[in-house]
Amino acid sequence: MQLPPRMKGSITLLGRLYFARQARTLLQFAKSTSNPELAASLVERAAMLKAQIDADKRPSPSLQAPDVEPES
């Protein structure tokens, strides 16, 4: 099943936001634990998520509706 063109950018944005939120949550858990091994593992996993976001070379979609012209 192929997404309509207007939805493809939304999926990209949601994916990036999801991964960023997951990475932030992992870092919060890492700060709250007193187990250094667990903290290191959580930071490593957060870095992996950040790398996935950075590896995505697709441009960030605009949150503006496609039929709205930008203001000059």
Give a brief description.
By secondary structure, this protein is mostly helical. Helix content is about 65%, strand content about 0%.
Task: Report how far apart the termini are.
Answer: 38 Å
Largest sheet geometry: none
Q: What is the general shape?
A: elongated
* Mean pLDDT over the full residue set: 77
Q: Could you say which structural class the secondary elements and strand pairing correspond to?
A: mainly alpha
Number of strands: 0
Count, helices: 2
Helix content: 55-70%
Strand % is under 5%
| Model regions low in confidence, pLDDT < 50 over at least 5 residues | none
Radius of gyration: 17 Å
Give the ordered list of helices and strands: HH
Q: Can you characterise this structure?
A:
With 72 residues, this protein is mainly α. It has a domain of 47 residues. It is 67% helix and 0% strand. It contains two helices and no strands. Helix 1 packs antiparallel against helix 2. It is elongated, with a radius of gyration of 17 Å. The N and C termini lie far apart (38 Å). The mean pLDDT is 77.
List keywords for this structure.
72 residues; mainly alpha; elongated
Lay out the secondary structure:
Elements: H1 5-32, H2 36-55
Helix pairs in contact: 1-2
